[in-house]
Amino acid sequence: MKYLHLIVANLFRKKIRTTLTLGSFAVALFLFGLLAIVRGAFNQGLDVAGSNRLIVINKVSLIQPLPVAYQERLERIPGIKLVTHNNWFGGIYQDPKNFFAQLAIDDDTFHSIYPEFVIPDDQWKAYKEDREGAIVGVKLAQRFGWKVGDRIPIKGTIFPGTWEFNLRAIYTGKRPADDTTQFWFHYKYLEERENTYWHGLVGWYVVKVDSADNSVRIAKAIDTTFANSPWETKTDTEQAFAASFAKQMGNISFLIMSIGAVVFFTLLLVAGNTMAIAVRERIRELAVLKAVGFSDIFVLVLVVFESLLVAAIGGAVGLTLAKLLTLRGDPTGGLLPFFYLPTQAMAVGAVLALAVGLAAGIWPAYSAGRLKVVDALRSV
Amino acid sequence: MVRVDGNGSGNSLVRVRGLDKKYQRGSEEIHVLQGLNLDVDAGDFVAFMGPSGSGKTTLLNLLGGLDLPTNGTITVAGDEITHLSGGKLTSWRARHVGFIFQMYNLIPVLTAFQNVELPLLLTRLSKSERKQHVETALQVVGLADRMHHYPRQLSGGQEQRVAIARAIVADPTFLLCDEPTGDLDRKSADEIMDLIDRLVEEHRKTVLLVTHDPVAAARAHTLLHLEKGVLVEAGKVGSSAGGRP
């Protein structure tokens, strides 16, 4: 600690240069934060996917339905504890820009399969008693200013006509990453109104298995059970399903990591150049430190710590700004419902900033450590 | 007692024998110091003069452990420094040498206090002990009231006094001064030399001074000329020259 002032004092030597270098780190880490947010948004399901849940879809494609009668057959397969089904509704609330997921759910099983979603008991009871009842996530309710008791009209696209719902419950998630932007209503309501076109069909099944270790075996058993039928199935773990869903939009992770790598490489060049100049212009001072008895290693560490300090401050500013941005919620109006910066991503950002700081400082520091006092004192 | 004939007593504070220093400049070999001998007792004040390029600064650098000779030995207070490794030589410098440079070489982003404190950071002294030492050193050079000023807020003479305080704060075995008045006007130069005189007379410091300035050199007890790589005794100029303890 007694040497700290030596490091800090040098930050104030060239204030504009220090500010610009700090700014470089701040901008780069802010951008990193944004990329991490976007990556997280596209991979939303991956982080929260249940390890003991399987998704059963029509083998042809996700938009093809499956018979509701499969539920009982699925329940008979060994290792399966619970089965529920979901149906994509795809309606529009007021304006097509107001996108959010609407699902027709099976009341009897849905709540048990997704324990991460919390619904107050009285609200759940009220929902069950109302055929036109609906449940929405807390973020969705906040987005449109809905409260329990509101009547919500939704214009169907797949299922024609205007559908009116009574908001009976608002759910929350146990984890920050849980999706609280969905809209759920009774499957029975859907089936009742669409008793010709959609009668006896569901969108996909969600299966809870006894152990995640048995997931692969059970998935295979499910697909074998329905093989060579008119409605063949394709079963994946929830995580694999979420990953394949994300991949439909391209390899977002690769794209984001590529951009991030370019940003950090550029930052390394900028910071490395700055540190090299900073050392070169005070060669005599470093030589004086050595002349009065500071060792080569001390001088090396001093320069490295200067670089690390700049990286730490700039990085902290950038990550903090990115985090603050997320506190205002999704700025896209619903396209990125998972708009938050996880602590893990912040930690990775901090490590990357320090790594760049170290890499930028190490060569100038090495040069400073090897400096010959006599030569340096002779320099102008 | 200062001798350059290699016959000094074994009790000399600084003992140099057969000192050679060669530099390679391109294909040319430059023999800066040639078989130089020197004995300096504790409390002596020796000035070295000579034309530019005669090797004065090279000699000072060798005596201060900043450079290594091609041949020969340097012994200071019983320690032969010419065979010390880089790290040990650095530690030795911290304990035994106080440097005063022509260009002051203060660190501009540190206050006078912090500049003077630098050598003490390498010691085990507590913060309050360091503070006490720094304040004492700044009082000795007459700048106790400027301890929180930055170098840019001081005149050249004041900067050099801060540099002197930095050189003496750890109570080194001897002071090596390389043209300490070379960048100062006459008045400031005289003040600096008065201060160095006081360090010798009142604080019993051993001072080795390189200078081009005959007025500054005249303050020394012994004046030596460096000519063609060897030392020549020019005369004892001080009242107590040669007879000092």
Outline the secondary-structure elements.
The complex is a heterodimer of chains A (380) and B (245).
Chain A: H1 4-11, H2 15-42, H3 44-48, E1 53-58, E2 66-67, H4 70-75, E3 80-88, E4 102-105, H5 107-113, E5 117-118, H6 121-129, E6 133-137, H7 138-144, E7 151-155, E8 162-173, E9 183-186, H8 187-193, E10 201-202, E11 204-209, H9 215-225, E12 233-237, H10 238-247, H11 252-280, H12 283-291, H13 296-327, H14 343-370, H15 373-378
Parallel strand pairs in A: 4-9, 6-8
Antiparallel strand pairs in A: 1-11, 1-12, 2-10, 3-4, 3-11, 5-8, 6-9, 7-8
Chain B: E1 2-3, E2 14-25, E3 28-40, E4 45-49, H1 56-63, E5 71-76, E6 79-80, H2 86-96, E7 97-100, H3 112-117, H4 127-140, H5 156-168, E8 174-178, H6 186-201, E9 206-210, H7 214-217, E10 222-227, E11 230-236
Helix pairs in contact in B: 4-5, 5-6
Instruction: State the separation between the terminal residues of chain A, measured CA to CA.
Output: 32 Å
What does the average pLDDT of chain B come to?
A: 89
Q: Count of helical segments of chain B?
A: 7
Q: Output the helix-strand order of chain A.
A: HHHEEHEEHEHEHEEEHEEHEHHHHHH
Cross-sheet strand order for the largest sheet of chain B: 7-8-9-4-10-11
N-to-C SSE string of chain B, H for helix and E for strand: EEEEHEEHEHHHEHEHEE
**Considering DSSP H and I runs of 4 or more, what fraction of the residues of chain B is helical?**
25-40%
Cα-atom radius of gyration of chain B: 18 Å
Count of strand segments of chain A: 12
- Fourth-tier CATH superfamily name of one domain in chain B: P-loop containing nucleotide triphosphate hydrolases
**Considering DSSP H and I runs of 4 or more, what fraction of the residues of chain A is helical?**
40-55%
CATH class of one domain in chain B: Alpha Beta
What fold name goes in the CATH topology slot of one domain in chain B?
A: Rossmann fold
Determine the structural class of chain A based on helices, strands and strand pairing: alpha+beta
Helices of chain A, by number, come to 15
Residue-averaged pLDDT of chain A = 89
> What profile does the largest beta sheet of chain B have?
6 strands, mixed
Which CATH architecture of one domain in chain B would you pick?
Answer: 3-Layer(aba) Sandwich
- Report the radius of gyration of chain A as a whole number of Å: 29 Å
What is the strand tally of chain B?
11
